[in-house]
């Protein structure tokens, strides 16, 4: 099944893109969503609200529209929501804007069925890019500078342990963010900054 989620000031609407029919709209807090993501099986939707006053992430069952989980966070902290291909897990990025030296950016994980956070004790202190299968995440250490080689790193989602790594080409850029997939999950485009000075340059590569 396929589901299209649209966010408005008055809430969120779910549509069936094949029939063009609108499904039931959400009930609850009325905020402009910052991020939306729907699981591949269309059974779960996650919504990230808020910016300045604080953020909260919610998971909903698309059939009952009942809340399955909620995560509260400080302003401008959470981003990049991504379900595993089987829809059983949700990964998202925590990137604090204050005291990053003490609280570095890392990946958090939710068990969708249980509605509980299952972030590994060994934090994945890197930048989330995409799921590779249902139990492996690929992250980037995001430090491709003249003095340090950056890598794409495959990690075990359950334990946070590294499985293998691949060097990121030196000319690819210093910062990687805003990953987006093609529908067949074979290609991904990211926005990168080749010089580290704010000059964004989009690149596409095979995932």
Characterise the protein shown here.
- The chain contains no helices and 18 strands.
- With 207 residues, the chain is an all-beta fold.
- Strand 1 (4-8) and strand 2 (11-16) form a beta hairpin.
- The two termini are 24 Å apart.
**Rg of Cα set:** 17 Å
User: Can you tell me the overall shape?
Assistant: globular
| Helix and strand element order | EEEEEEEEEEEEEEEEEE
Average pLDDT works out at 77
Report the major sheet: 4 strands, antiparallel
Helical/strand content category: mainly beta
Question: What is the strand arrangement across the widest sheet?
Answer: 4-5-6-7
Low-confidence stretches: 195-199
Share in β-strands: over 45%
